[in-house]
Specification:
single chain, about 575 residues, alpha/beta, nine-stranded mixed beta sheet, 18 helices, 24 strands
């Protein structure tokens, strides 16, 4: 029997960085490296967010070479490579050269650095409205409403602003698929990207009548769909080997061997699902049993960073209003996924803190006390509780109500026009006021998570636990709020920051071992996911009553905002 140790590299392309992680078959991390990537904004249009595949590829190559150097692992021991990325639209010509997506005279020109319309880009609002007026079967698989963050609205926007000849020479990729193409020269696409973000309908494929109706008939291309790249068997489940592995050029760039297996990719949130839900967990010092594949139906993954995505798998397709999916084969062959989400969570927490008048005071105090700003805010809250003689932060803030959709609602309302609200404001700009607003932001994020879980379970899911990953998993107060508000245990990963990239590394192993069966894929997930820690619901009776009342008001706030909007639209018409 061979005693040689094999390794796999996961590459995670996030909103602001590219990360590589080298792991062994047990999921233990040998080395990790992160490189910042560029994002361009438009000072005259707040909706615009653009990136560059050239920039990101250069950072991927640095990160991969660095993990090999840090670990001392020989490239011969690296057997597979997997990618996850944000659901952003990458545009190239048919030779793989970047095509500019920046509005103006150069849009559609080859060689322009800015060739990615980032997921957060909201330029395609009118295009999304047109798509949502079609009543197409496509909409059944996105919760009834297509988000302007998906790829087809963005492609339609590009068509409207680009010369027709230039547009005809473009290839359109969801970002994970671009980088498997970059590595292998094979433009096969993943089920995850095409079904979740590009309107490829499960069991039915591309819908010619839909694309014709919205004004994108040229993409049909006589049934070849060359610009979309996914037809005639060229759509792959997660981890399927792509092409012949790394090309000679890509291998040289990455410092790996030509032919190293490259697995079909995943959207970053789905990689977070893969890197967390197979975990066992410790509770009261005891390790839980290894979960069977069927247990995945009950485990909701929450990938919580700048925004949050909520993913759950089911054996049969479940249609949930305002929740994307169901998507067949997005992760496991024959299984379905639903995806809820919050467009701004970590970003919202930062916004509430940094825009408050007391933020400079908070920074100075944290510096003087050599503490994290979040720790300072919690200490202020604890002192306020003592002064007011209340038992919890929830009781302290019971008369203030915060609604969190500052950047529109992704789930379960699917309404980009929803906006944030705070009810119960005072003439107070102190650090005490900031601490309350900080806690209210966390509470509102948890209340909205309950709304998403309830919507999924009402439609037919059976979610009974929440598996966290991403930067927010460090926030112990928020994690306890999730458990208390949603009434389910929260499982924290062994490494909050590595769960997503670990999922990408699993794709590399699946490709290297040519695994195709769902049971075998699940076994790899369980084997490579280190045990997590369980946070149980533990609210006092009073706190639970207050949280339930807050949730009722939270739901009422939605209806009030919709009614007020309608009244103002009628008044303005």
């Amino acid at each position: 029997m061979s005693t040689e140790k094999y390794y796999y590299i996961g590459v995670d392309i996030g909103t602001g960085s590219a990360r590589a992680c080298l792991v062994d078959a047990s999921g233990r991390i040998a080395a990790s490296d992160t490189q910042d990537t560029k994002t361009w904004r438009d000072e005259n249009d707040h909706r615009i967010f653009e990136q560059s595949t050239t920039d990101i590829w250069s950072k991927i190559c640095i990160a991969v070479k660095n993990v090999l150097e840090k670990s001392g692992v020989d490239k011969n021991a690296v057997k597979g490579l997997g990618f996850d990325a944000t659901c952003s639209l990458a545009v190239s010509d048919f030779e793989g050269n970047p095509v500019s997506v920046t509005k103006g005279k150069d849009i559609g020109s080859v060689g322009g650095e800015r060739n990615i319309v980032l997921w957060a880009d909201h330029r395609a609002e009118k295009e999304a409205e047109l798509i949502n007026s079609t009543d197409s079967v496509v909409l059944n698989y996105v919760g009834g409403t297509m988000s302007l963050e998906m790829e087809v609205p963005k492609i339609l926007w590009l068509k409207k602003h680009m010369d027709a000849v230039r547009f005809s020479q473009c290839q359109f990729f969801d970002l994970p698929d671009f980088f498997t193409y970059k590595c292998t020269g094979d433009n096969a696409r993943s089920f995850c990207s095409t079904t979740c973000k590009c309107s490829f309908v499960p069991d039915k494929g591309w819908q010619e009548d839909f694309f014709t109706r919205i004004g994108l008939a040229e993409l049909i291309d006589g049934g070849e769909w060359r610009q979309m790249g996914a037809t005639k068997g060229r759509v792959k489940p997660a981890g399927t080997p792509i092409g012949q592995g790394l090309t000679e050029e890509a291998a040289k760039d990455l410092g790996l061997l030509k032919g190293t297996s490259v697995g079909s990719g995943l959207i970053d949130a789905y990689a977070g699902w893969m890197g967390t839900v197979g975990a066992r967990y410790t509770e009261n010092g005891r390790l839980s049993a290894a979960p069977a594949l069927d247990e995945s139906r009950h485990r909701l993954a929450a990938v919580a960073g700048t925004s949050t995505c909520h993913l759950v798998q089911s054996k049969q397709g479940v249609f949930v209003n305002g929740v994307w999916g169901p998507y067949r084969d997005a992760t496991f062959p024959g299984w379905w996924m639903n995806e809820g989400g919050q467009s701004s969570t970590g970003q919202l927490i930062d916004f509430v803190i940094t825009t408050h008048a007391a933020y400079p005071e908070l920074q100075e105090r944290a510096k003087q006390e050599q503490k994290n700003i979040h720790q300072v805010l919690l200490e202020v809250l604890e002192k306020l509780c003592q002064e007011k003689q209340v038992d919890s932060f929830t009781e302290l803030t019971k008369d203030i109500h915060f609604y969190p959709d500052f950047h529109g609602n992704r789930s379960p309302i699917a309404d980009p026009r929803m906006r944030g609200a705070i009810i119960g404001l005072e003439l107070d700009a102190s650090i005490a006021d900031l601490s309350k607003k900080y806690y209210l932001t966390l509470e509102a994020i948890a209340l909205q998570t309950r709304h998403i879980i309830e919507s999924m379970n009402t439609a037919g899911h059976e979610i009974n636990s929440l598996y966290l990953s991403g930067g927010q998993a460090r926030n112990a107060v928020l994690m306890q709020l999730f458990a208390d508000v949603c009434g389910v245990p929260v499982i924290l990963p062994a490494s909050y920051s590595e769960a997503v990239v670990l999922g990408a590394a699993m794709l590399g192993r699946i490709a290297a071992e040519k695994v195709t069966a769902s049971e075998e894929m699940w076994n790899i997930m369980v084997e490579m996911t280190l045990p997590g820690t369980l946070v149980a619901p533990a609210p006092s009776l009073k706190a639970k009553q207050l949280l339930d009342a807050k949730y009722k008001i939270f739901r009422e706030t939605i209806e009030i905002q919709k009614r007020w909007r309608q009244q103002m639209e009628e008044a303005a018409s």
